[in-house]
Amino acid sequence: MEAALEVTARYCGPEMERYVQCVVDNPQSWNKDCHHLKMSVAQCASSHPIIRQIRQDCAEPFQDFDLCLRKNEANMHNCTEHMRRFLQCVEQVQLDRPCSGSASPAPAAGQGTAARPGARRTGDLEP
């Protein structure tokens, strides 16, 4: 769950902020009044490539976890192992995915960024 929240906060910050503000502003009726904003957060998060990859790669452990929760509504702690396996899968998806600092492709071999004054090369360290 932490991984999903992290992705949501990172890539859907404005949507999340509007939803949280609505909840704060409507303590008695937030569930009804903020539903449309909740859906916009869900739509944003579900369209992210990492979430789509998690859905694909972790479908089986998620289904096992979901089934366990349905069978153990009164004793959800019985599903701890199922949850652990699902979260482990989620973390693996994130570890396997390369970091993407920008949407632009990397320069071709021999075409580094050194031609631009002040540009950093891939191997340069931050000061």
UniProtKB/TrEMBL annotation:
Start and end residues of each IMS import disulfide relay-system CHCH-CHCH-like Cx9C domain: 5-49
Top-level taxon: Eukaryota
Signal sequence coordinates: none
Gene Ontology CC annotation, any one: mitochondrial intermembrane space
Region (Disordered): 97-127
Pfam families found in the cross-reference section: CX9C
GO biological process, one term: cellular respiration
Record field: compositional bias (Low complexity): 100-117
Family annotation (PROSITE patterns): CHCH (PS51808)
Protein name according to UniProt: Coiled-coil-helix-coiled-coil-helix domain containing 5
Native organism taxonomy: Eukaryota, Metazoa, Chordata, Craniata, Vertebrata
